[in-house]
Amino acid sequence: MLGKFFRKESEAHNLMQQHIEVVEKAVDSWREALLFYFKGGKEDFEKKALLTIKMESEADKVRRDAELLLYQGAYLPTFREDLLSLLELVDTIADDAERGVDFIRIENPEIPPTGVEKLKIIVEKNHEAFISFKEAYDVLYKRRSDVLSYTHKVQEAEKEVDALQDELMKVIFQSELSLAHKIQLRDLILTIGFISDSSENASDRVALMAVKGRI
What we know:
The protein is mainly α. The chain has one domain (2-212): Methane Monooxygenase Hydroxylase, Chain G, domain 1. Helix content is 87%, strand content 0%. The longest helix is centred in the first third of the chain and has 37 residues, at 2-38. It starts with a helix and ends with a helix.
């Protein structure tokens, strides 16, 4: 019986790891898609956008498999609740990536030349936030005492994204663009920032798990 319990625990851990890796692929393709779009590579954007959508669907599948194992009794209840919550928070990151490419595919926003470089930086900072979250999760099982240093990096990246978003939106709303165009660009900027917001939420859960102890 005990062996069966630990086997389920190991399988659940492997699925959690697989889930984060698939979400990472979604975020990577999201990043590449947006960078292609900003430089006018709409065909390459479309390919990466479709890959992002595919990875989001794959992440959903792996999440459901992991949830099933957890509901079947992998891990003790106190840890199970944390892991189920973390699964949902990480899956939201893949949802955000899909939402970002869908926004562009549907609305096809025209990016003013003055905003391109700032948007690239915002995308990269969002990507950094996710990578720091992933590093925090990786050390949770190895060097739990290091987790908070990585979650702090996520928080810093998210703050930088907020500041960059505010700065760019101020420039946009002081420009001569039409109000409809300004609002569309504002929505694009906010949609891009969802990645860092969700990465921070997931990293906060990892920090809590590290403080609580054994996983």
